[in-house]
Design a protein that fits this description.
Layout: E1 5-8, H1 19-27, E2 30-33, E3 37-41, H2 44-49, E4 59-62, H3 65-77, E5 87-90, H4 93-99, E6 109-112, H5 117-126, E7 131-137, H6 143-151, E8 154-165, E9 178-181, H7 184-193, E10 203-207, H8 209-217, E11 224-226, H9 234-247
Parallel strand pairs: 1-2, 1-9, 4-5, 4-7, 5-6, 7-8, 9-10, 10-11
Antiparallel strand pairs: 3-8
Length: 248
């Protein structure tokens, strides 16, 4: 079956040269973007109830841009002036780059991992005498606390923001040829909004093994998956599938 319409369960890219826009133009398909989940900040009052005293930490572990935003939001709400001596351990270059929104990069102690949390852990271990705060989501991957506990460091996890299911009721009677998912939370949102969802001819594209498992656990069929050696990105996987489907 040919592909004409795609719904990506993420916000629309803000960059003009996004590969999604290129895909839309070259493959002559319509691509809509709609976040199936969104992030909401936890009020500072609730964070105090988690027994978090920002003055007692000498280092912050930042796993995402959301973590950056909500750490500085909470610091402001608590009227905590982040000291220049604070050390920042960023999971990836993208997170470290985003940190520049809040701090003068060259004047701060910033340590950057490659991509995964496991790759950041040797840097954290080098500074095991610091007191670490991990501002995180309520959907933290279990491997993160496991790795930190194994390092034997002094650290505390605190939920600064939550992943919340978006209201998709306006899509009840809208059909797309392909639905694109990037996390198990996206699948959870689909069934929360549409408990009687039937896949029928809808193709499902997923990114990552945990998302594949979430799709299959709901009895759905995975038609397109990434990353693979041949298609390391979702847009490449979509392009390959569309090329094959629309030839017929």
């Amino acid at each position: 079956m040919k592909v004409k319409t795609i719904l990506v369960s993420q916000p629309e890219p803000k960059i003009e040269n996004s590969p999604y826009f290129d895909l839309q133009e070259k493959q002559k398909v319509k691509i809509d973007f709609r976040p199936f989940i969104h992030v909401e900040g936890v009020p500072s009052k609730e964070i105090r109830q988690q027994k978090v005293d920002l003055t007692s930490f000498t280092a912050i572990i930042l796993t995402s841009r959301n973590a950056v935003d909500h750490f500085f939001r909470v610091a402001e709400e608590m009227r905590f002036k982040v000291p220049d001596s604070m050390k920042y351990f960023c999971q990836s270059e993208a997170v470290a780059y985003y940190l520049q929104k809040y701090v003068v990069y060259r004047k701060r102690k910033i340590y950057v991992g490659k991509r995964t949390f496991a790759e950041l852990s040797p840097l954290i271990k080098k500074y095991k005498d610091e007191t670490f705060l991990l501002p995180t989501t309520d959907k933290l991957k279990p491997e993160v606390p496991k790795i930190l506990n194994e390092l034997g460091i002094n650290w505390k996890e605190a939920v600064f923001y939550k992943t919340v299911i978006s209201d998709l009721s306006d899509l009840a009677n809208v059909y797309y040829d392909i639905l694109v998912f990037f996390s198990p939370s996206g699948i959870e949102s689909l069934f929360h909004n549409f408990p009687d969802f039937k896949q029928n001819d809808t193709r499902i594209a997923v990114f990552g093994n945990t998302t594949i498992k979430a799709v299959e656990a709901k009895g759905l069929r995975v038609d397109i998956s990434a990353p693979t050696p041949e298609t390391p990105s979702m847009t490449m996987a979509l392009k390959k599938y569309i090329n094959d489907a629309n030839k017929k």
